[in-house]
Amino acid sequence: MKYAQIIAEIEQAIGDGALAPGDRLPSERELAAAHGVSRMTVRQALQALESRGVLRRSIGRSGGSFVARPKLERDLGTFSGLSEQLRRQGVAAGARVVSAREIDGVVEIVRVRLADGEPFALERSSFPADRFRSLLELDLTGSLYDLLDERFDAAPVRAVERIEPVLADEHEAEALGLPVGAPLMLVDRTAYDDGGLVVETARDVFRGDRTRMVAWASELMRA
After folding, report:
1. What is the distance between the alpha carbons of residues 146 and 157, in angstroms, rounded to a whole number?
2. 9 in the Ramachandran plot: left (φ > 0), alpha (ψ -120 to 50) or beta?
3. Fewer CB within 10 Å of terminal CB in the chain, N or C?
């Protein structure tokens, strides 16, 4: 059907590099004429691509349909720090420290995580102060897990993570450059060292428009 054909052709053009992130697609009228379909059919195809995160659409004189930047993947199947996961995708990881303090027996570090220099996530990590107090004396703009490994011999080796969609509050929206109420993905995490001790509890929120969660499923178990 023409609807699916339009979607397939646009995705193929993006995959081949004929359309790059930020490129503007022809207008609905032009696409309809090129495919011999109604503008409604074109609009439905573009809306489907927008819902998948392939396109972003805007209105106004400078509006239209544009190729979206690829979403960054947060792999839930393997346990590694965000810096490492971004590096695997060819993305430069960075961090801007919002606050770092000791409070109520923990070292709390709040950071805006950057992907190629742009805000991507807001992290709030807590570490037992009696074990990790000197974290506050270190450079916190790189991988915290690398610091735990190199300075404390306490690399996290496993974690339990709970994920749910949320909406950005005022603080989160300001930190990530989003409107209040924008969709975010919340990840609550508890990480353990190889001795089974908790080394981190965290509450991270990721931009919904820039993030895709990925999990590998094992073979189906049959009764």
Report:
1. 12
2. alpha
3. C
Question: H-type helices in the chain, by residue range?
Answer: 2-16, 28-35, 39-51, 82-88, 129-132, 144-152, 170-176
CA-closest candidate to residue 171, choices 159, 158, 184: 184
**pLDDT by residue, tens only, the chain of 223 residues:** 787 888 888 888 887 888 887 788 888 888 888 888 889 998 888 888 887 777 877 776 667 888 877 777 777 766 777 778 778 877 788 999 999 999 999 999 999 999 888 899 999 999 999 999 999 999 999 999 999 999 999 999 999 999 999 999 999 999 999 999 999 999 999 999 999 999 999 999 999 888 877 777 666 555 5
CA distance 185 to 207: 7
Q: Cα separations (Å) of 104 from 42, 84, 124, 198?
A: 57, 30, 15, 16
Sign of CA dihedral 6, 8, 11, 14: negative
Query: What whole-number distance in Å separates Cα of residue 120 and Cα of residue 89?
Result: 14
Structure tokens at 137: 């004396």
Whether the CB-CB separation of 175 and 122 falls below 8 Å is answered with: yes
Q: What angle do CA 210, 206, 182 make, to 5 degrees?
A: 75
Do the Cβ atoms of 25 and 57 come closer than 8 Å? Answer: no
**pTM confidence score:** 0.72
